[in-house]
């Protein structure tokens, strides 16, 4: 990124936070290697993030991980939109009628971001964690978030997506997804 409006130190900080989100606990050297950054740069950035409360250090192995402060910020964003509160009565009704779990997600780029849920009463459950993201193409909820977009918007939104087959029913390419979205639109 060479845009003069972009602060590289901020980009590095968020790259580290995203890496810790993806990998869990990591040490300075591991972060340095994975992000191709100098150890001294990683150390200064991690020290700043730690002093602000965004990362914590495990005293037993000196590795770093994200703190709950990030969850708190994300939860506040969802709460302030009011969407989970507005949707809750409808989600509860749907759960009571079906006996199934009900999830609420919003589109976040090419992902579905889970912001609220009601657990199933069944013994066997599929667990989606709040704050978890999944590709839009591989869940019914994700498909519902894009089904009524114009085709060119869907293509653009998912242009950089690698279609990974998570289950035998996962769409593995754009054309198969677009065909499946036609069915979603017809069903409503």
Beta fraction of the residues? Answer: 5-15%
Strand neighbour order, sheet with most strands: 3-4-5
Low-confidence stretches: none
* Rg estimate, integer Å: 20 Å
Largest sheet: 3 strands, antiparallel
CATH superfamily of the largest domain: GAF domain
CATH topology value of the largest domain: Beta-Lactamase
Distance N to C terminus: 41 Å
CATH architecture of the largest domain: 2-Layer Sandwich
- On the 0 to 100 scale, the average pLDDT is 92
Given helix and strand content, the structural type is alpha+beta
Number of domains: 2
So how many helices?
8
Question: What's the topology here?
Answer:
Layout: H1 8-23, H2 28-35, H3 39-51, E1 55-57, E2 64-66, H4 69-81, H5 83-98, E3 102-108, E4 111-118, E5 133-135, H6 140-146, H7 151-157, H8 174-187
Antiparallel strand pairs: 1-2, 3-4, 4-5
Helix pairs in contact: 1-3, 2-3
Structure in words:
- By secondary structure, this protein is an alpha+beta fold.
- Helices cover 50% and strands 13% of the residues.
- The model has no long low-confidence stretch (mean pLDDT 92).
- The strands form 2 sheets. A 3-stranded antiparallel beta sheet has the order 3-4-5, with helices on both faces. Strands 1-2 form a two-stranded antiparallel sheet.
- Helix 1 (8-23) packs across helix 3 (39-51).
- It folds into 2 domains: 8-67, Winged helix-like DNA-binding domain superfamily/Winged helix DNA-binding domain (Arc Repressor Mutant, subunit A, Orthogonal Bundle), CATH 1.10.10.10; 72-187, 2-Layer Sandwich (Beta-Lactamase), CATH 3.30.450.40.
- The protein is globular, with a radius of gyration of 20 Å.
């Amino acid at each position: 990124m060479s845009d003069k409006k972009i602060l590289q130190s901020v980009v590095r900080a968020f790259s580290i936070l995203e890496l810790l989100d993806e990998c869990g606990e990591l040490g300075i050297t591991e972060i340095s290697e994975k992000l191709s950054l100098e150890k001294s740069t990683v150390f200064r950035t991690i020290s700043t993030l730690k002093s602000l409360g965004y990362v914590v250090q495990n005293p037993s192995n000196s590795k770093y991980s994200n703190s709950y402060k990030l969850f708190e910020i994300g939860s506040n964003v969802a709460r302030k939109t009011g969407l989970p509160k507005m949707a809750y009565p409808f989600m509860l009704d749907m759960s009571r009628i079906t006996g199934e779990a009900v999830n609420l997600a919003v589109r976040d780029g090419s992902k579905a971001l889970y912001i609220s849920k009601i657990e199933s009463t069944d013994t066997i459950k599929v667990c989606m964690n709040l704050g978890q993201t999944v590709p839009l193409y591989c869940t019914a909820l994700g498909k519902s978030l894009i089904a009524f977009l114009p085709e060119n918007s869907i293509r653009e939104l998912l242009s950089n997506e690698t279609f990974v087959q998570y289950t035998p029913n996962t769409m593995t390419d754009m054309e198969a997804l677009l065909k499946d979205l036609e069915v979603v639109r017809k069903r409503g």
